[in-house]
Amino acid sequence: MKGAEVLLRVLARNGVHACFMNPGTSEMHFVSVLDAVPEMRPVLALFEGVATGAADGYGRMTGRPAATLLHLGPGLANGIANLHNARRAGTPLVNVVGDHATYHKRFDAPLESDIASLARPVSGWYRSTGRTATIARDAEEAVRAALGAPACVATLVLPADVSWLDADPASIGARGGAGAAGPAAVPGTQLAPPDEARLAAVARAIDSGAPAAIVLGGLSLGERGIAAATRVAARTGAKLFAEPFPGRMERGAGVPPIERLGYFGEFVQAQLGDIAHLVLVGARAPVSPFAYPDKPSDLVPRGCEVRVLAGPSEDSAAALEALADLLGADASAKAAAEEVFGSPPARPDPPSGPLNPHSFAAAIGAVLPENAVISDEAITSGFLLPGATAGAARHDLLTLSGNAIGQGLPLATGAAVACPDRPVLALEADGSAMYTIQALWTQAREGLDVTTVILDNGSYGILNIELGRVGAEAGGPVARSMLDLSHPLTDFVALSESMGVPATRAHTAEDLTEALRRSFAEDGPHLVQAILR
Amino acid sequence: MKGAEVLLRVLARNGVHACFMNPGTSEMHFVSVLDAVPEMRPVLALFEGVATGAADGYGRMTGRPAATLLHLGPGLANGIANLHNARRAGTPLVNVVGDHATYHKRFDAPLESDIASLARPVSGWYRSTGRTATIARDAEEAVRAALGAPACVATLVLPADVSWLDADPASIGARGGAGAAGPAAVPGTQLAPPDEARLAAVARAIDSGAPAAIVLGGLSLGERGIAAATRVAARTGAKLFAEPFPGRMERGAGVPPIERLGYFGEFVQAQLGDIAHLVLVGARAPVSPFAYPDKPSDLVPRGCEVRVLAGPSEDSAAALEALADLLGADASAKAAAEEVFGSPPARPDPPSGPLNPHSFAAAIGAVLPENAVISDEAITSGFLLPGATAGAARHDLLTLSGNAIGQGLPLATGAAVACPDRPVLALEADGSAMYTIQALWTQAREGLDVTTVILDNGSYGILNIELGRVGAEAGGPVARSMLDLSHPLTDFVALSESMGVPATRAHTAEDLTEALRRSFAEDGPHLVQAILR
Fold this sequence. Notes:
Distance between the termini of chain A: 58 Å
Strand order of the largest sheet of chain A: 9-14-13-15-16-18-17
CATH superfamily of the largest domain in chain A: Thiamin diphosphate (ThDP)-binding fold, Pyr/PP domains
Oligomer: homodimer
Number of helices of chain A: 21
Largest interface: A-B, 100 and 101 residues
């Protein structure tokens, strides 16, 4: 059995059942054994940033890693931006990078490069598997690392000869020899229980009468963590926030509508106010995404004490439940939510009239189907979405965790592979869409049930705001032209259809709601170009 | 004067007159001062791989660096594959990467990453400029490094605060204060003269009567080097070859038609035969691009002595001329070419009938206009191009120097910015085209005179060959489907027009020649989808 087949079997045996790939010559043995391991679903991407972003979306939705298959250093490099986002989201991911045969590297062939140097900034674990004899062990350890606490991107470099040489079947052992039917050798992420001393200290601080805020992040943003945090807030008056860019967050009808911290520092400062205690639950202390002249980088209010209730390796939802119990927060989740947030937010009515950020957000809130997954890279056009979708049908929200744009369409692609029975909605800014637009082809090829809305404002809208905020002079016409996407305007309908995804254009709120309803009613991918210019 | 303006002025003063960019918030001060430095032409790309590939094309055609402007680690990562190609081509390039403000980095904001680790594998020179006081010096040194011997990618990291703080005008000094009118402080690449001892040894070896071959690479592939090498070959009987993937090579009518070494090792072995001496002139010893079971990596014939006449830091064209003189090769270049290659190759007649690799290549050879620049990423469909264009109108050929696909369209874009009076022709495989298809938008926006031919065979053709060559079993339907681009087929006409580039489809050789003639007759970008399925 070739090394590549051992690798595939060990991955599949340990619950890795999808591989998002863009292979080359050095990966041909991996490709050639795909037929022998039907438990692994291979998904072809036309660009590596699509493969890595899709693996991120898959991992966020399943809690188990997908694999990638990338072609040497340059193929890896093309996937790094979305691996950066996966790293920030804490997604489990087994990042397989093909390499030249071990004995071939010294010849410095054209595609030779320093893969380790490229991979390390985005990898929580890195190994180049040097011998076919160890490939089973290395594959299992990659899955184990990806599913560690915290989960991470585990990069496994696979030289061509390690892939093509025959492995001793004994090296597989229990790791993969039994096929995919048995229980996985590598368990899911095992989070540490809450720390009692920190629990007690947080409870005292938050119950001291001084104003406090709790920021939820990571795995605390499921319904369980949000409900427990809401009970704490109802009991103590602490403010509740979600981190600004959650990897995944449960939202919509029945989930307490906790607000995310804002993008701009001024907004975060207004949200936090004069708190004396800040409690972090799977979240990091708030910082400004960028430095700006004469504005703070650190957004923790002056004099505020910061306490970590649960770090990324701890069970943050359990910690919130333990905190609620310790504080005697005995209201039901529903009663607590009403006390903290008032009446549950309503689903918006379908909007009418011109299309703008307000009617766009209302349309999403109004027609979102039950159990949807939203991949949100709407950027400036999406600033009203949180309010408009708080009372929408129940859904999962995936956000731009590492702020590296070009995530939204790949992420939706991977989420749809992970969740074939759930509608997936990608809300995508026009500028960001063009980074990884090739994702549409994979959606068409795989028949994925993804609805993409392109928010077309004909500009890098965020940069028009930032050009002023950084204190730069407004710039003359040359500077402004660098933020302008309207010469030429991209015809996203033609672009989408060129890759096999049916598309339509929406000029009014009615157009958009109608197009969304049609798309949700039909299987397969669809795209709507929403004109917001 | 802000640091960013000092940077722009020093770059422009030293002959950097184009900047291919995809900026973000941390680069807004650079953008805001563009109006103040009209000697710098900013060119916006929708994806960083387009920006870096275009800077490579610009540098290959001018011999002077263009700048890039990329957004932190993830923006750099998106550009790395084409920086890898630029590195292999020996292109001068000033790669400017924006970074967080120096004091902001410790907060590990979402876009923070290890830029040095990402940049080093593709950078011959790397510096993060830590203070506005040194930005003028750092910018000049970046240009000096880019134009070193050999030329390289010089990466200059520019923190946001270094960009926005005021620089002491005295720090600029002669580096940029005088504007762009004066002579550049940094001269062009200064290559070392030929080494006399090596010249003599090479002359003895090549004139020993034992079979010899000379491989030309790098800057020896201009007409001057090729002509001198041809004189040497006429005098000694040595075989002549070009390296397999030249950064730039002069070809067509009047240039001796030297053959490139092939892609596959078996072909190279047949080309070299049983030579006893191999002379490298700005080229590296031939190696297989990949390892294959039971095939050699090292393609130097067994027992053959390898001698370097000129390395990448030496003047390889001058070395060839000196070698010709030393050997008393006194035939004229024209007479020598006739002796070595026979009658000059003819321009092919315009082909008719079905479109296939043969008629495609003939069409290019037949209609190529005078003084064109060809960016060749045709991959498998282009294997007959060298023969068909040897007798075409005089042109420059730019090839896939680092084998990282997705180079062709960006490279053509940058070449067109560099050479506004020359027609540029991009020959592009369908699979490779989709890596950096966003280049079309920049071509439309800038009105560049680029003709793109998409060679549509509906597959990763090279991988269908490689799947067999690596010794992988042919693979079943799943394996083969990973190399198949026909489900769905991409409509490149719609795709091109969606980004503002007029396009047409060619089903026959007549269609293609007619479409090419029309495109060459009209200004601005055009695309032809050539159906080879």
